[in-house]
Every structure is written in structure tokens, then in C-alpha cells.
Write a structure and sequence with these properties.
Elements: E1 2-3, H1 6-26, E2 33-39, H2 43-59, E3 62-68, H3 74-85, E4 92-95, H4 105-111, H5 123-130, H6 139-150, E5 159-163, H7 170-178, E6 187-191, H8 198-203, E7 207-210, E8 228-231, E9 235-238, E10 246-249, H9 254-257, E11 263-264, H10 271-287
Parallel strand pairs: 1-11, 2-3, 2-4, 5-6, 5-7, 7-8, 8-11
Antiparallel strand pairs: 9-10
Bound molecules: NADP nicotinamide-adenine-dinucleotide phosphate.
NADP nicotinamide-adenine-dinucleotide phosphate (NAP) is lined by residues 140, 163-166, 168-170, 191-195, 198, 211-214, 232-235, 271-272, 275.
């Protein structure tokens, strides 16, 4: 079994980005600049945004964190986004989700200029991705693709099963694995909460990508001998073993399946760190547009 080490791979990517930024700045160019909008005081969102801002510093980007009050109206938020859309010093913009219930997330995402949409959630970016045209690929699926590429996992003609069809993970990774490119050219099956015979379908997977958010959902009986397994899930559970009193579990029962697979991502340290690295990569690309 080979561990798909997202921590190490993401650090390699960050080093490559930092080197490129250094070159740009030494040649008189401008540092890439990411703006992040955080609405309200959601603890998890705060943690994610802070990690993104810190990652920007690490690779030499400029970053701007815009904190807005929970009670902001949809129109006020749209105005903030429009200001950033027309601000030439900012290359990429992310709006941390989820937003408060009174704000329509789709409307907000549609307001972000597609040239600055480094999260890749704008419908035009998703459309371009589907057609294999230049676009920003959402960071988590992009991280999965990069891991597969850097570990040279064969995907052409393979059966790829994806559990989950969310707009940020399951759906885009299914499209990417089916595209006529590498990684891609797989025969893709998408499973969701209405799917039947999940165990039997998973058992046929050469590549199993799991993104449903249910800890230890995938067990050894669902795995084909020698499969490559990518676990996107992150669930925080209480633990009496760790100092903090909690730990993170993936959607795959790692201990149960690890001896049966060829490749597997750990949780934590697999897909998670790759997500931030790919956001930085998208921001670097945006700065070159
Ligand atoms: P989501 O929006 O809740 O989507 C979950 C998907 O799983 C849905 O398509 C749902 O089906 C499907 N599903 C739920 N129960 C199922 C079941 N019993 N059998 C088959 N399919 C089932 O979740 P998400 O945003 O994609 O996130 C999934 C997990 O990945 C979460 O643990 C999240 O924390 C994690 N995540 C990690 C990263 C990272 O950077 N590592 C990034 C994003 C998300 P329906 O469509 O029918 O409801």
C-alpha cells in the first residue's frame, strides 16, 4: 500500500509557487493578491479562512481578509464583491461558505468575476471545466487530480466510482475523471443518497473517490483488491485518546481497508492540505491573466 501524502505534496506545490512568485517579484512584477470575504462569526469558517490567509503569506502572496457582519444584506454583500471585481490590485476572490441563511449563495457566486473566481464555483467556470476549456477548477477536486498525477496513478479505461454529487466535490471530480485527458478517461459512476447496491458498485471500482461526510462509511467489503482510494471526508468526533478531546475521521475506515488497497489518502493529511495548495495555484494563475 502506498500512502498518498497530501501534506508533503502540498508543501512541494507551495515551494514551487513561492519560487515562481520570487521570480516574478525579482523581475519587477506584482505579487499575486487573494481577497477573502468572511461573513459573520462561524468558528469553522474562521479557521478555514485564517488557514488560507496564512498559506498566502507562506508563498509570498498579498492577502486581504474582509470581515463583514452577520446582518449584512444581500445587496451590501454584492456591492462589496463588485468593488473587488473592479479593483485591479486584487487577482483572486473567495467568499467563504456557508453564508447566513438570508443571503442567496448562488446570487453571490454569480456576482464574482469569473477571472477572479479562484474557488471555481461560478457556473461559467463549471461549464468551461466540463468542456475542457481554460477555467479555474474547484480546489478540492483539483487537489485530487494533482495527487493522482504526482503519484502517476493510471486512470485511462479504469472504473472510477465517486460517492457524493455535491457541487464542490463529487460532481466536479466526476466530470474531471471522465474528461478526455490525464488524469481522466475513466468510466465514471456517481453514487448518492438514492443509489442502490452501493457496496456492489464500489467493489468494481479501480479508483474510489469518497465524499459524503459519513465517518468510516467505506469498509473492506466494499473495496476491490488493489484499488486506489481517495478519501475526501472530514468528520470531527470526540476522542478520549487525544489531548484536544476530538479527532478527525474520513469517510473510509482506513485501518479496515489499508491492507487491501494499492493507494490511499490518510485523513488528516490527504486531500485536506491539497485543497489550500490548489487555491494558491489558482490565484497564481489568476494573477497571470
Ligand atoms: P455534501 O454537500 O453534504 O454532499 C454529500 C453527498 O453525499 C451528497 O451528494 C449526498 O447525496 C451523498 N450522500 C449522503 N449520504 C449518502 C449515502 N448514505 N450513500 C451515498 N451517498 C450519500 O458534502 P460535501 O460538501 O461534498 O463534503 C463531503 C465531505 O467532504 C464532508 O465530510 C466534508 O467535510 C468533506 N470535504 C473535505 C474537503 C477537503 O478539503 N478535504 C473539502 C470539501 C469537503 P444527495 O445528493 O442525494 O444528498
Amino acid at each position: 500500500m502506498i500512502l498518498l501524502d497530501g501534506k508533503k505534496t502540498s508543501n512541494d506545490i507551495k515551494d514551487e509557487i513561492a519560487l515562481e512568485v520570487n521570480g516574478i517579484v525579482n523581475n519587477g512584477g506584482k505579487k499575486p493578491h487573494l481577497a477573502a470575504i468572511l461573513v459573520g462569526n462561524n468558528g469553522a469558517s474562521e479557521t478555514y479562512v485564517n488557514a488560507k490567509v496564512k498559506a498566502c503569506e507562506k508563498v509570498g502572496f498579498d492577502s486581504t481578509l474582509i470581515r463583514l457582519k452577520e446582518a449584512i444584506t444581500e445587496d451590501e454583500l454584492i456591492n462589496e464583491i463588485i468593488k473587488i471585481n473592479i479593483n485591479d490590485s486584487i487577482d483572486g476572490l473567495i467568499v467563504q461558505l456557508p453564508l447566513p441563511k438570508h443571503i442567496d449563495e448562488k446570487k453571490i457566486i454569480n456576482t464574482i468575476s469569473i477571472e477572479k473566481d479562484v474557488d471555481g464555483f461560478h457556473p461559467k467556470n463549471i461549464g468551461n471545466m466540463t468542456l475542457n476549456l481554460p477555467c479555474f477548477i474547484p480546489a478540492t477536486p483539483a487537489g485530487i487530480i494533482e495527487l493522482i498525477k504526482r503519484y502517476n496513478i493510471e486512470t485511462s479505461g479504469k472504473n472510477c466510482v465517486v460517492i457524493g454529487r455535491s457541487h464542490i466535490v463529487g460532481l466536479p471530480i466526476s466530470i474531471l475523471m471522465a474528461r478526455n485527458s490525464y488524469p481522466g478517461n475513466s468510466t465514471v459512476t456517481i453514487l448518492h443518497s438514492r443509489s442502490k447496491n452501493i457496496n456492489e458498485i464500489c467493489k468494481k471500482a479501480d479508483i474510489l473517490i469518497v465524499a459524503l461526510g459519513k465517518a468510516n462509511f467505506v469498509t473492506s467489503e466494499m473495496i476491490k483488491e488493489g484499488a486506489s482510494v481517495i478519501d475526501v471526508g472530514i468528520t470531527r468526533v470526540t476522542s478520549n485518546v487525544t489531548k484536544s478531546g476530538w479527532k478527525l475521521l474520513g469517510d473510509v475506515d482506513f485501518e479496515n481497508v489499508k491492507d487491501k488497497v494499492s493507494y490511499i489518502t490518510p485523513v488528516p493529511g490527504g486531500v485536506g492540505p491539497m485543497t489550500i495548495a490548489m487555491l494558491l495555484k489558482n490565484t497564481l494563475s489568476a494573477s497571470k491573466l
